[in-house]
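Checklist before submission:
- one chain only
- standard amino acids only
- sequence pasted in full

Submission:
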Amino acid sequence: MNLEMTVKKKIKTCGVIGLGSMGLPMAKHMKKNGFNVIGFDINEESIEKAKLLGLQISSSIKYIGEESDLVLIMVQTDQQVKDIISGGDGLLQTLKQGAIICIASSVSPFICRELEVLTKEKGIGLLDTPVCLGQQAADNGTLTVFVGGEEQWFIRAKPVLESFGEKVILVGGSGVGQIAKTANNLLLWACITANYEVLTLAKALEIDVEKLIAGLMHSSGANWSLSRWGKSTGKWSEKDMDVALDLAQQVKVPMPLSGLVDQLVKNINQEKMRDLLK
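Returned file contents:
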């Protein structure tokens, strides 16, 4: 079967590499939407949770590559993504022509572009598909998915991405999905630090913070972070911040505000946010 015909085939079996707090609910929604799902993780606790959801577990990435039409990667680091795709027993060695790799991890857009060169040689699609809106949206299957890559692969992968994403948006070529998420995160972190500073002042002035938030949500200061104040897990990755500022350095764009936000947001967590509501 030639590549053109293979690309038109519907995706039936999906591999998910990385069954942590985000990868596991994404895999659950894939299964719920009728896809055969094979999971892989090196963490035993994650594996046991996946088994309780009825997911098939593989002991090797090699097997996932051999069996899957699409593989979604949700791991922590750039190097892990590279090893999974281009390592000795990586996906490039085992995926069939016409299969698709979706990098849901937050990684450098330049790595996505490097890997796309390799996948093209094998007739394999590569999309960067980072997600936004956090843990609750992952659990509910209402994530926003920013997608970078070729349209032919996006069209084929879209039903899978829509199983856990309420909004699935193709924003450009390879790596652009990662850039879109970075842009989103920079704005989010700026809002978090501004909200924290303002609400701390409000509490010191003995204003009912919950009533203030309710009022602000009907005014020009409204923002997503404020609407969920105290509900966020407070887990924003320092790696993601470093990636954002490193990208700015590479293209020589000064970002003094984001540099300050980078330092401020590291001192904020869920407990501190909730304390302002007491």
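Reviewer check: The chain has 15 helices and nine strands.
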